[in-house]
Amino acid sequence: MEARADTSLKPLPPRERRRLALVSLMRSMLSAVVIIVAYFVLPLSSRLTTTNLLTTLLGLVAVAALLTWQILQIARSQYPLARAIGSLMVALPLFLVVFAATYYLMGQVNPHNFSEPLTRLDSLYFVTTTFATVGFGDITAVTQEARAVITIQMVGDLVLVGLVARVVISAAQEAMRRQGLPPPR
Length: 185
Description:
The chain is an all-alpha fold. It has 5 helices and no strands. Helix 1 (14-41) runs parallel beside helix 3, helix 2 runs parallel beside helix 5 and helix 3 packs antiparallel against helix 5.
């Protein structure tokens, strides 16, 4: 059975659309700031243990679950494009913080994992330059373990940018199509 556009939704005036878009953007930015602040203030064990590795895996599962939930919400949203942008603005910092925390812990356990000792800021900087494919080379992975985790991050980066972004935007476009809304310009 094909979904029909909900004719009870009336187009909002441009001023109201801008207000709702701004509220959505601000909520997403606040969520991203909370994620990053939490990374800096929450305690992280100075030992890399099975529990810490499991926590990293659970963090990645949480990112995947968040994205899956967000995609379902986008499909049902009255304002799917704003919801899609907000979803990516929350998922990306969460994804990066999971790896930044992992690199920080790896550096605490074995300072030789990287070319220099890593603070939390160094770890966030490193994960961001890796994600952005800038790779200044000032911090590098030295051990096989560090290179393996960074390789996992790089594959995750490609999946996040390529597949997830496409699925999120497609969900927004499909929801807009079902509502009879014009595609974004």
